[in-house]
Amino acid sequence: MDMYGQFIWTAYGATAILLVTLLAYSLFRYRIAQRQLDELVKNDREQGKKTFKVEKDS
Amino acid sequence: MKKFLALVQRDLTLVYRNANDAWVVLFFFVIAVTLFPLGIGPDPSVLQQLSGGIIWICALLSAMLSLDGVFQSDFDDGSLDQMILTSYPLELIVLGKCFVHWLTTGFPILLISPVLATMLNMNLDAYTTLLITMLLGTPTISLMGGIGAALVLGSRLSGVLISLIILPLIIPILIFSVAAINASGEGIDTSSAVSLLGALLIISSVFCPWTAAATLRHLTN
Amino acid sequence: MHKFANPARFTKLATKVLPWTSSFAAVCFLFGLYFGIFDSPADYQQGETVRIMYVHVPAAWMSLFTYSLMAAASASFLIWKHSLADIAARSLAPIGAAFTAVTLITGALWGQPMWGTWWVWDARLTSVLVLFFLYLGYMVLVNAFDDPEKGSKAAAVLALIGFVNVPIIKFSVDWWNTLHQPASLSRLDAPAIDISMLAPLLLMALGFKLFLISILIVKMRTILIEKRIQAKQLLKSG
Fold first, then answer.
1. What pLDDT tens digit does each residue of chain C (238 aa) get?
2. Chain C residue whose CA is closest to B218
3. Model's pTM, two decimal places?
4. Does A8 reside within a domain?
5. Do B152 and C144 touch (CB under 8 A)?
6. For chain A, which has fewer Cβ within 10 Å, the N-terminal or C-terminal residue?
7. B125 near B52, Cβ under 8 Å?
């Protein structure tokens, strides 16, 4: 690398930062959505069990 | 044709009743132009160089101010839905509305621009080109703005949104107009830039009402 | 094509494809970076700065490719009303915006040592900047409505109108005499570029493309899950 090294490294660094941010943000959103869905499904199942139990008792 | 004129007349009456709204746009244009000499200094030679650009940028911004209202009032009171349902082609209705928008904003700006050009010390040879570019460019803005007005109909923040959407698309008009004005100030032939502006006007007078009408049909059902 | 418009089928296929695309993207980036930074010659004119090309050019290609995909997805959404096409277009916009930002930033960092300026207002740079604005406009418009369906339709129309900018960018260096150099890879049979430079360039381009597909899959699946959550919550409250 000659005197232009700093330009090259900045270019590669900026690219890496932008793309990694995009990747991390996408994965983060995916995780949150997946977790929320799992929770809802779990709640539904418990709710289902409860109503089932109530129906059985009565 | 009779129906078209009746539609234009109806919209003009509506504007006339709220004449204040039309004046506001013109007033904004004048104030915005006034800011430039105060902001960049009163040096006549600098102002002369920038005059075409200043007037055109302010004209663009002023047009943006009023564009989101093109369909808004008809959308609010439900008459737009009826216009879509009538047998009369929606494309012509849109064309009429864009024409009224130009007549009430673009045309007054065109009329007052020579006065402001004088205050900005514009080169005397450039006045004719300024008026020609305004005459060809501002209707194109109203037509392309019609698409934008149809797109943002019913959204939040429609006024700012329309600027964000339409301004990038009308950059060519700004470039060609200012290039023509600056060239004529230096005594260079401007016919190519002017004919490009004319071509843009012809293309958009066919394409824009069609697109805006399709958008309105898509968005309102 | 319509066969994959089913969300369940898409999720199934996407789950299978994702590990492959993401790992191949990583491999392409690794080799591309190695060849690009350490194992390729310096240009006789541009010196070492030519190495910026290996991120700048693929990012520029991908910014146009992503916009074309987004316009195609928007068109298919407007014509066939496939909700999956809408989800694809929505997911593509931020990815394309990121690629365009990479193009602009690396371009500035290349322009400073080569032309002596970070930015010039020539046709190529201006039209790419407009592309960036179009991506941002799409992202703002798509979320500006209380009814998401309306946002999708309005943004789809905007994506189609903005497509006129793509050929303008592509040919701006040929139509106008600008500072930006014309494409070196216009003819595939006899490219004006040496194989030692072509290899990292194509590797990086492939890496960018696989990266695009991977992110697209993740983003589309996120939206699909969010739609399911909404449907469930609606069911509960209703």
1. 565 568 888 888 888 999 999 999 999 999 988 888 887 777 777 778 888 889 999 999 999 999 999 999 999 999 998 889 999 999 999 999 999 999 999 999 998 888 888 988 888 899 999 999 999 999 999 999 988 889 999 999 999 999 999 998 888 877 666 667 776 655 445 556 777 888 889 999 999 999 999 999 999 999 999 998 988 888 877 6
2. C153
3. 0.90
4. no
5. yes
6. C
7. no
Range of the domain at B190: 2-220
Residue ranges of the alpha helices (H) in B120-169?
127-151, 158-169
Taking CA–CA distances from B216, the nearest residue in chain C reads: C154
CB contact under 8 A, A37 and C225: yes
Q: Is residue A55 domain-resident?
A: yes
Quote the domain boundaries for residue C44: 10-180+195-237
Question: Is C37–A12 a contact, with Cβ atoms under 8 angstroms apart?
Answer: yes
ipTM: 0.88
Instruction: Residue A53: give the domain boundaries.
Output: 21-58
Compute the nearest-CA separation of C229 from chain B (Å): 24
* Cβ distance of A18 and C94 shorter than 8 Å: no
CA dist C170 → C61, C158, C201 (Å): 9, 20, 18
Q: Residue B103 has what DSSP assignment?
A: I
Q: Do A8 and C225 touch (CB under 8 A)?
A: no
CATH number at residue C19: 1.20.120
Domain count, chain B: 1
d(CA B55, CA C195): 52
| Residue C71 placed within a domain | yes
Domain count, chain A: 1
Q: Is B165 on the interface with C (CB under 8 A)?
A: yes
Listed residue (B133, B167, B128, B146) closest to B80, CA to CA = B146
